[in-house]
Amino acid sequence: MNRWVIVAGGDTSAAELREVKQEDRLVAVDGGVITLRKAQIPFHIAVGDFDTIGPAAVAELKESGVQVEELPREKDMTDTQAAVELALAEGAEEILILGALGGARFDHSLANLFLLERIHSAGAQGVLCDRNNRLRLYIGDGRKMELPRGRFQYISLLPLSEQVEGLHLEGFRYPLSGATLLRRHPMGISNEWAAPVAKLSAVSGTLLVVESKD
Amino acid sequence: MNRWVIVAGGDTSAAELREVKQEDRLVAVDGGVITLRKAQIPFHIAVGDFDTIGPAAVAELKESGVQVEELPREKDMTDTQAAVELALAEGAEEILILGALGGARFDHSLANLFLLERIHSAGAQGVLCDRNNRLRLYIGDGRKMELPRGRFQYISLLPLSEQVEGLHLEGFRYPLSGATLLRRHPMGISNEWAAPVAKLSAVSGTLLVVESKD
């Protein structure tokens, strides 16, 4: 599996950084450079307009042999989107995005969330992760998705499409069978594991699977 | 206008609380009780399972004459959703929600965001606000929405439906005419005002209008 890990400028804890593997292709997005340097983790590529780290740090990166993709300040996508497009163009099969939720600006968090759909539309798998949350997409096609119990307590299911039909949940504290969920009336918040592996399936719609803890 | 203000347990600054008017119907959701007490703002109703403030504080609320709507801990909606349903049942025409974004759990923030659609479907107007963000919906029907420049620097437009068609922007730094925006490829992040009042319209789709600052 050709996995790319993109580290954006938001809060990223040591726990997430420990998930980075030797064989991953590692990309720092602007402020993510600071995160990775503090953690003394070498990375392959730096992407951004670099308004956070500034030109001196960019020059230093170039000298140290890091591939630098410098973007204009005025553009029609965010730095993190640009990093995802780069990863997809290079054939990423899986993309893990860290430090892309929970900043002051909710529009950025949302745009990053919608990147999961962009990644899926390119035939790859995306995961968005921070200290308290792990987000993935499930596209309703009848197939079963397995969710092993990990470090999170809650598992919430939120429709991203207007509705999700034929939802089956097993191994959940609150199981469902053939349910319809509506985006405007989310009923799937704070479900929990009732088995080591919870399983879900749906026949249509786009579902956001959010594992979280307080 | 019959306006309700719902104060949830998340971070709420003095600036947002100053927007609360004498004639608003004011609801505290669980931890929102603490926010409003600290700010010495009296409220009409308290809603929640009260796992944050605990039973002693609930008893005190009842004694002081506040209407208390105690919810079970196990339920198929969040406390904030329940507060919105209460406001809608009581004929709210406008609902301002504070303290409902930016907590540790992203599923809660998202469920609160989707409440804007629930509020719209009931024929009312919803606004979600915190220190750095103000979120509203625009439903594409050709009508013009006016956005006066206020305390925010950026104005981002994110499709909540799969796409938004026929988008026109005037008075924006980056204007558009008849554009289509896709949810999976958000291009409308960090637009700015180029006039005291920016105007937008679209012919179809559901658009999230996010005013923000860093």
UniProtKB/TrEMBL annotation, chains A, B:
<dbReference type="InterPro" id="IPR053149">
    <property type="entry name" value="TPK"/>
</dbReference>
<dbReference type="Pfam" id="PF04263">
    <property type="entry name" value="TPK_catalytic"/>
</dbReference>
<protein>
    <recommendedName>
        <fullName>Thiamine diphosphokinase</fullName>
        <ecNumber>2.7.6.2</ecNumber>
    </recommendedName>
</protein>
<dbReference type="InterPro" id="IPR007371">
    <property type="entry name" value="TPK_catalytic"/>
</dbReference>
<keyword id="KW-0808">Transferase</keyword>
<keyword id="KW-0067">ATP-binding</keyword>
<dbReference type="GO" id="GO:0005524">
    <property type="term" value="F:ATP binding"/>
</dbReference>
<keyword id="KW-0547">Nucleotide-binding</keyword>
<keyword id="KW-0418">Kinase</keyword>
<dbReference type="Pfam" id="PF04265">
    <property type="entry name" value="TPK_B1_binding"/>
</dbReference>
<dbReference type="GO" id="GO:0004788">
    <property type="term" value="F:thiamine diphosphokinase activity"/>
</dbReference>
<dbReference type="InterPro" id="IPR036759">
    <property type="entry name" value="TPK_catalytic_sf"/>
</dbReference>
<dbReference type="GO" id="GO:0016301">
    <property type="term" value="F:kinase activity"/>
</dbReference>
<feature type="domain" description="Thiamin pyrophosphokinase thiamin-binding">
    <location>
        <begin position="150"/>
        <end position="208"/>
    </location>
</feature>
<dbReference type="InterPro" id="IPR007373">
    <property type="entry name" value="Thiamin_PyroPKinase_B1-bd"/>
</dbReference>
<dbReference type="GO" id="GO:0030975">
    <property type="term" value="F:thiamine binding"/>
</dbReference>
<dbReference type="GO" id="GO:0006772">
    <property type="term" value="P:thiamine metabolic process"/>
</dbReference>
<dbReference type="InterPro" id="IPR036371">
    <property type="entry name" value="TPK_B1-bd_sf"/>
</dbReference>
<dbReference type="GO" id="GO:0009229">
    <property type="term" value="P:thiamine diphosphate biosynthetic process"/>
</dbReference>
<dbReference type="InterPro" id="IPR006282">
    <property type="entry name" value="Thi_PPkinase"/>
</dbReference>
